[in-house]
Amino acid sequence: MVNTEFHDREDGWIKHVFFDSGNGQCIAFFAFENIGERSDWTTDVSESLGVPVFINHAAFEATEEMQESVRARMEAEGIQPTMEIDHGWCYSLYYLDPNQVLVELCRDTKGMPINKKEAARLLVAPTATSA
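and the corresponding structure tokens:
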């Protein structure tokens, strides 16, 4: 954690918390209470919208050493990866954070294949079978 801002509101509060995500970049999260949120709100972004948990997730670049260090620390706490996928061009470990948001630690293996023409064609394909 590199910074936290705290703001009192009329009947509640907001905390804006910043974490170092490497390479001079940060990722920030909010914690709040009584700022106008609905009583039935939840933090599980994907599943609360009715889609699988992997649809909305945060991905971070990782080395093999970083992945294995995280795996060891998580296993020491009794936490197993939610998913572990060899995508062919990268290898990813996925964990659910305390708010049920999926976090991906992605290690390049062969590098993402670049085919701009095929990517554009698939982007507008109406279904996988028509691709």
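(Above: one complete record from the training split.) Residues 64-76 form the longest helix (13 residues).
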